[in-house]
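Two proteins follow. First one:
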Amino acid sequence: MRLKLKCMDITRILAVRHGETAWNVDTRIQGQIDIPLNDHGRWQAQQLSKALAEEEIHAIYASDLSRAFDTAQAVAKDKKLSITPHAHLRERHFGDFQGHTWADIQDQWPEDAELWRVRQPEWTPQGGGESLVMLQQRIKQLVDELASPHMGQQVLWVTHGGVLDILYRLATGQDLQAPRTWGLRNTAINRLIWTPQGLQMVGWADETHLDLAKDESSA
């Protein structure tokens, strides 16, 4: 059924994962540890800014972790906008898993690693971690909080892979345990719309600005 929504009845959302970090390359779990962008991540942030140069953006929100905030800063500088940091845009807290690679986790906590692998919704990582249910509740509340003041406008949210995964599931009705078949690449552009009834998908994982830039640099 075709949607009949007036522009003033919706908030348009650009949801973006932060640029690459050294721990991304190492497949080390970052969670809520504050790891900075690496050189490639800073390049990705600049490419994101170029890709959004012609987009009208009314407000920018970012996780207060530096890898997300600094990615947002590249866009904010060109748009001459301030960034509103928000701790609830942070990545899922992975408790004792944070700072370890997947191989480390399988070796040290094999039973917990299996519960994580199968996406057991109520499983909570030891050491203050969040379950998938807890993460989903956090993000559902945050979506309404950040989107409702911007009806008729477009906003940019710069956040983390786990948060984007939940946004995708909320917009498409995917269960928390459904296998992930969608991309969460660093600085890919994801488009959503929000109404008081919830989120809807417009487009996902637009990586054109990254792929074209690579092609041009190697031409």
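Second one, unrelated to the first:
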Amino acid sequence: MKWKIPAFLKNKYILTPIVFLLWVLFFNDVDLFFIMKSRGELRDMKREMEYLERENELTREALYDLTTNDATLEKFAREEYFMKKPNEDIFVVRVLED
């Protein structure tokens, strides 16, 4: 049984781009799947970068507020470090979680 080769595969000007496309899309180190995966990772990293920039801005605002406003600084010291005024008692209640 003889195989018949289609006429367009006998033409070297058509065969060369087909082989090149197959090589670039599937067999090369930077193939189509690698590019798609890299784009997805880049998109995820950009989202994370935007989130971290927003968090950084909120932290800067809080730091500015702590350095300029004495009432905010006192509230922060009382809540985070359990500082107290003279003649004042502090009771720390911790809730145990399951």
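SUMMARY FIELD: Residues 51 and 61 are 16 Å apart (CA to CA). The radius of gyration is 33 Å.
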